[in-house]
């Protein structure tokens, strides 16, 4: 199990754009990575297609793990990646599991496996993991 240090404080600045207002850190037990998400990082929160939002909310328990995951993908796109795509996806899964335990989410509401399956299935698409050209 990993550990979050700090709180996720964001502000919505556009229809699908948020900005991190205060930096925070995630320390992964599984990968050994330490991820510092800086203030000012802009992203779309969880990249959940509208059709799936009835099953997995764009906001909620998974905000912090999704933010860390988006930041790891962003670092890779700009050529400053600190891990593989598989490690980034594993960090999302681990962080989601941490939050499910923290909030005592009942088994029937847990979505970490669905999140992981989605990013493993679709994270390779152009513009997500790959470097910008």
pLDDT averaged residue by residue: 85
**Helical proportion, percent range:** 25-40%
Order of helices and strands: EEEEEEHHH
Alpha plus pi helix count = 3
Strand order of the largest sheet: 1-4-5
Question: Stretches where pLDDT falls below 50 for ≥5 residues?
Answer: none
User: For the CA atoms, what is the radius of gyration?
Assistant: 14 Å
Q: Characterize the main sheet.
A: 3 strands, antiparallel
Strand content is 15-25%
Any overview of this molecule?
Helix 1 (63-77) runs antiparallel to helix 2 and helix 2 (85-102) runs antiparallel to helix 3. The N and C termini lie far apart (36 Å). With 133 residues, the protein is of the alpha+beta class. The longest helix has 18 residues, at 85-102. It has helices at residues 63-77, 85-102, 112-122; strands at 3-5, 10-14, 17-20, 24-27, 34-37, 42-43.
Produce the secondary structure layout.
Elements: E1 3-5, E2 10-14, E3 17-20, E4 24-27, E5 34-37, E6 42-43, H1 63-77, H2 85-102, H3 112-122
Helix pairs in contact: 1-2, 2-3
Write out key terms for the chains shown.
single chain, 133 residues, alpha+beta, 3-stranded antiparallel β-sheet
Can I get a quick summary?
The protein has 133 residues and is of the alpha+beta class.
